[in-house]
Amino acid sequence: MTAFESIPVGDPGEGPYGVAATADGAVWFTLVHGGRVGRRDADGSVAFLAVGEGSQPSVVTAATESTVWVTDTAGDRLLHLGPGPAGGRPVVIGEVAVPTSGAQPFGVVALDDGTAWFTELGADALGRVDILGRVEEYPVGREGSFVSMVAASGDSIWFTLNAASALGHVRGGDAAIVFTELPAGSGPVGVAVAEDGAVWVALLRADALARRTRDGAVSIIPLGEGARPHAVAADPDGGVWVSLWGAHALAHVSAEGEVEVRPLPDGAREPHGVAVDRAGRVWSAAESGVLVST
């Protein structure tokens, strides 16, 4: 078993949260309590960008081979960021305001057509940024559902409704939303689509993962009492990696449902975001102040 590497990032209390890997070999991460976004270059150097007083950079996702989208939950905006000259401090390529005040954008995913979809915690809605930077919002039709994380496969969008214990699916911006009900009170958060088309969901309050197959069948995979799974990332073999926020560990779950829990190193606690880069290396942002990787 390969040991985890622990990489300190940011200042104490800044709270590494989201993480994403881009095709240029960089790893991006948010410091949710510090109002900053970091980028670790392929050569191991790290640079930061402050994104504004009172900001709350939350989730980050790869947009192109070298750029990312970041949600600013407190600022009701999305930021498109890229690397600075010679891999220096990241720079802002674009900024998009969310039309609804207090929408609290959180989860975000980029599609191959250049658009991005995001969730609105405070507005029970999805948002879409088109290639010109225009934003459309789509209420999901369930009040108080706390729309949380989002994933994509082709033009299919999958999203979790944390307070409603459901998984939503929409194929294209004008299609009707279809819901898959999950165990009551399970608190779905992270979501990912695996290579075989199965959709995996972290059930935070149920200490479990849900797996929905293409035909709509749902199975529940326990992760251990107190695991508190948060984020999910697909691997190249049909399985997923999941951050176990409560257990201070990452878990790998195969397509067959086999679970391997791997504790994080000392000092790496409360993992949130998780990502798998093109080389198959796994990354997670731990709120205690480190990035961890395989």
TrEMBL record:
<dbReference type="InterPro" id="IPR015943">
    <property type="entry name" value="WD40/YVTN_repeat-like_dom_sf"/>
</dbReference>
<dbReference type="Pfam" id="PF24684">
    <property type="entry name" value="Vgb_lyase"/>
</dbReference>
<dbReference type="InterPro" id="IPR051344">
    <property type="entry name" value="Vgb"/>
</dbReference>
<protein>
    <recommendedName>
        <fullName>Virginiamycin B lyase</fullName>
    </recommendedName>
</protein>
